[in-house]
Amino acid sequence: AQEDPDDGQSxxxxxxxxxxxxxxxxxxxxxxxxxxxxxxxxxxxxxxxxSVELQxxxxxxxxxxxxxxxxxxxxxxxxxxxxGDQPDPNVTEYVVGPLPTPAYHRDVxxxxxxxxxxxxxxxxxxxxxxxINALIQRELRKAPRFLxxxxxxxxxxxxxxxxxxxxxxxxxxxxxxVLFHSVAGSGYYLSPVGLEVLVDHRxxxxxxxxxxxxxxxxxxxxxxADLEEAFVANLxxxxxxxxxxxxxxxxxxxxRHQPSSPGPLQYEPQGPRYSVRGNRVTFQxxxxxxxxxxxxxxxxxxxxxxxxRIVYELSLQEALALYGSNCPGGMSTRYLDGSFGIxxxxxxxxxxxxxxxxxxxxxxHYLVESDTPKTNxxxxxxxxxxxxxxxxxxxxxxxxxxxxxLRKTTLVIRAISTLINYDYIWDFMFHASGAVEVxxxxxxxxxxxxxxxxxxDYGSRVGPHTLGTMHLHHMHYKVDLDVDGQLNSLETQDMxxxxxxxxxxxxxxxxxxxxxxxxxxxxxxxxxxxxxPMPRYLSFVSPNPNKWGHPRGYRIQIIxxxxxxxxxxxxxxxxxxxxxxxxxxxxxxxxxxSSTSIYNQNDPWTPxxxxxxxxxxxxxxxxxxxxxxxxxxxxxxxxxxxxxxVTVGNxxxxxxxxxxxxxxxxxxxxxxxxxxxxx
Amino acid sequence: AQEDPDDGQSxxxxxxxxxxxxxxxxxxxxxxxxxxxxxxxxxxxxxxxxSVELQxxxxxxxxxxxxxxxxxxxxxxxxxxxxGDQPDPNVTEYVVGPLPTPAYHRDVxxxxxxxxxxxxxxxxxxxxxxxINALIQRELRKAPRFLxxxxxxxxxxxxxxxxxxxxxxxxxxxxxxVLFHSVAGSGYYLSPVGLEVLVDHRxxxxxxxxxxxxxxxxxxxxxxADLEEAFVANLxxxxxxxxxxxxxxxxxxxxRHQPSSPGPLQYEPQGPRYSVRGNRVTFQxxxxxxxxxxxxxxxxxxxxxxxxRIVYELSLQEALALYGSNCPGGMSTRYLDGSFGIxxxxxxxxxxxxxxxxxxxxxxHYLVESDTPKTNxxxxxxxxxxxxxxxxxxxxxxxxxxxxxLRKTTLVIRAISTLINYDYIWDFMFHASGAVEVxxxxxxxxxxxxxxxxxxDYGSRVGPHTLGTMHLHHMHYKVDLDVDGQLNSLETQDMxxxxxxxxxxxxxxxxxxxxxxxxxxxxxxxxxxxxxPMPRYLSFVSPNPNKWGHPRGYRIQIIxxxxxxxxxxxxxxxxxxxxxxxxxxxxxxxxxxSSTSIYNQNDPWTPxxxxxxxxxxxxxxxxxxxxxxxxxxxxxxxxxxxxxxVTVGNxxxxxxxxxxxxxxxxxxxxxxxxxxxxx
Lengths: 679, 679
Ligand SMILES: [Ca+2]
Ligand SMILES: [Ca+2]
Ligand SMILES: [Ca+2]
Ligand SMILES: [Ca+2]
Ligand SMILES: [Cu+2]
Ligand SMILES: [Cu+2]
Fold this sequence. Notes:
2 copies of one chain form a homodimer.
Chain A: H1 18-31, E1 47-55, H2 59-67, E2 76-83, E3 90-97, E4 104-107, H3 109-113, E5 117-118, H4 126-140, H5 144-151, E6 158-162, E7 174-181, E8 192-200, E9 210-216, E10 219-221, H6 224-232, E11 265-267, E12 275-277, E13 280-283, E14 286-293, E15 297-305, E16 308-323, H7 328-332, E17 334-336, H8 337-340, E18 360-368, E19 374-396, E20 402-419, E21 422-430, E22 436-444, E23 448-450, E24 459-463, E25 466-469, E26 471-481, E27 487-501, E28 509-520, E29 527-529, E30 537-545, E31 551-559, E32 581-587, E33 623-635, E34 651-659, E35 674-677
Antiparallel strand pairs in A: 1-2, 1-18, 2-3, 3-4, 3-5, 6-7, 7-8, 8-9, 9-10, 12-13, 13-14, 14-15, 15-16, 16-17, 16-26, 18-19, 19-20, 20-21, 20-35, 21-22, 22-34, 23-25, 24-25, 26-33, 27-28, 27-30, 27-33, 29-32, 30-31, 31-34, 32-33
The structure holds calcium ion (4 copies) and copper (II) ion (2 copies).
């Protein structure tokens, strides 16, 4: 069972094709009986299709099909509609099927969320940002003298950066926008001019939107006119910021030197050793189904090794960036990137830099805020990598002379999401030892504030007027391990010392290292808050033993440097309550498909999904369990974050490692094994 | 100053050449006025040369030479002599110089250790092990019927494994030896037969050594005859262990399958981009001097980037493996590998597996327990590695379309030490971002005990009679950072939340993330015990600011999963008191060259060097400071540790990252930078 017998079975997890997406759009346009405006042009007071994506089949149904005699589950789509043109504006989610020729649609909103989704929770669309920008441009015209003085600008060459959340209570939709000098071909994120504006865009009529507050260089104003007046009256301390000149843009990535001889490159002497068929890759006993959710990003299904499923679902859930600053935009910012779209912003990968030249590149399709499917070409890559490290080796010249070893070559599945300024590199790696490694590296431009006052209490100065603002990166993963079947328990191991007499003469004292093994029986015990001690070993175990009598298991090993999560006293904390736990193990529920929601960003005060509610002390012995893992790090920017944060030292993630799952290390079967001896 | 102007200056740190080693031996043989026996043949009651190695020049002297007009320091050796043939047997250390033609030798023992080094502290030599083995073989002959029954053996096919320490108080030299079936061409470490013997080899007359205790399968006996008697009287529960058969040896690394197509390989299109001259390597602004201490292992000196020294010394100090078991050998074991010889056991590297084919391989020479120098050919490798990851990248399609990035190619310096069963892979990596990465991976054979009774309270069963015993790996590094000069301070940063009114309307509450910066003024504050909270950012900073006003610094970022160190109540804890601290920053002292001593293993109860004494609350502001870093992990073996522990998930280490040291990321100057835009 080394090779994968998949005959298109993995297609149950396949993202919708452009044709399928188009079919669903056509179906909705024809069957909802409502006027639908293309989301690319829709006003808040219109109805539109916000997104269409795969409705992943229920696990039970999928498994019946994959493992048994069950029928192929019907192929369905999940469509999100913004209904602004209704008496009670709301967001509605429909399951539409069966594809390729839809015949039904079911409103699943209440079933999924326990109630209707109020309209104010919807993400901000591109069209909404355009309308806000138009408002800001109009407002800027009210302070021409100020702008000329502060920024050598008439406003038109200033660019805005959104922040989020957008207020302090449910229903609020008032966003601080930070203004930057726009810089062609480089990250404007490093060139704040000191001006920030609070726009209230809650009203469904764009014409009623208003600018509520203005911030400049440490001072607050109620309007641009007010600011202009203060300037003209000489009551304003203006910091004159030069327009970035092409020659010396802070953060330019243009090479300063001619390319020299090329660095080392990988080649595959006899071509790739993995194979990609549709949405499934196979490699040395591994088979993995991959996909990309437009919102939550990369996800894998049905990860099997040697024919046995180890993980049913491994999916990114959310990426949080939480900032500190003495400017209002920065201090308010808690980006929930899933609501912006981690998957849809996973753009084309640059061959030879983002992934090796020899990698296999796969297109991803999505339908978001448009009636037409879009494609991110070559936006997921797959390759085998030479880690230039032994996976295992031993050299002996005592007793007998021999050497055995195996190179560490790893299958990597990668996508890179650019979320405005930041780039997250999502890696999923598969080792010859049966281990899965999940890693995220952060790179791209840092977000910045205008440096004023005690700014350096919130980061480092990284440019003439630029404060690199401190922030937390927290990412959340769902790992539905199914170890040797669906029924698993959680076993922990840790160490202790026992002080006792040595047993041979009983005359001396010895500190004996020993093992503490434990089964965690309930969800509350298995939810490990940050800064609380966590056992060094945590494994999903099966009821079945390996050859040596130990329960077959997979160990979860986390590598994270996370910062403290938001205090639970915060009124928005429940929206990111997954961030409380480094690891939480819950019973798998079809009704708990993800730890967050795209609606959490704009109404975190009444979270549509509150992960903490999943942890309700249910028993977790011999159940279908899910591990929810959060990783992250505190990032206090420094000069070397210019132009871009480097990946060195900025990677976090986790391993899933076989732990008495096998009877020996499966890599002994690798045909790459090397051995020689003096015999 | 990108390129290194080194004209053989780095040779002040060069390990002694075979010719130099031979010169020192000849000089000692001619000038000590004592009968010296070749250590390979010497009895405890003889005098012998235990080792000769480079005496590293004092830092002040070396820096005067490297940086100023100072003369080249005289080249000197450090010779360790075991004086067993003296009225007061002792270990004496001499500095011998100047090379190549020695003219003087100075006894530095008292200066280095504050007193004479008692003879009983000396490491056990190969000859001593041979004599012990002969004793054990003689003893085994006293239990022929037992051995035939338990082990299908007459004793001659059993192999011993030493443990350490060797007793419970200063002066003790009584070692538990664990017996294994010897296995040709594979690790016998996995085949314990259940028999262990305690040999007292304290007396300088080998003839007086004695077997003190015998352990078999959970029971203790005072002699082999006693054991035999119990067996014959049928009072012994014997577990019949078959002799390993060639076809099915537990832990065999012989490939089971024909090689298939080769995996990805690296090539260098225009050859290597680094250059190695003698003991110095240069690469893209980096220059590093490397060497290998026969005891403590790999070490680097004078690490410079762009001509500026960042680290004066980066050296491994010690590797500890501390075991738990219900067998006496295992439960007693606290190996201090430095006393066995981390450097001398760094053997030849296998091209294409231990390092890439294209790597540069360097020989290392040493003189230990012999009058003749030995060479470990190709035992250190240097290569540039394609990490197949961007070092940095950003893709933009908002505002303007552009892409900038840089591949992560890394210079790696590697050695691999085989310490009996275990193999440690020592990596030192140098990045285009100015960061140094230090990493150790563990592989090789686990150490095991015979499975009996409640054995699985100490690990996992991994074979028919084999218990993979739990243990801690702890490694200690000395990092003498000199950041922008020798005078540095230690700055920490961490985060907090402040709950306050938002400043624009003062109507809502906001949790503001902010930075806590601190200078640690004294050694006691800068000694971070395990499990005590450690600030997330710790940097060595210079008094001088970068362009943006922040003190130029390098950050220390540790990646470790260490287990709890031995309780301080243990009478041997002071010998490994470096293990208390994840990080300790002390004032650099010429008299505190290392955190441990090769004499600590055999007399840990009166440690020759006790690291904890370095921490005596001296001020550490604007001083020459050293960071002492310990990393490690708890290893509870499992079936997949057979045949060998894999490196996946078993790597720990640390980064040294520029932190406001530069004015921007130095990688912007890399000729490998890529940029394109739509302009
Ligand atoms: Ca639950
Ligand atoms: Ca599960
Ligand atoms: Ca001190
Ligand atoms: Ca220093
Ligand atoms: Cu960041
Ligand atoms: Cu280990």
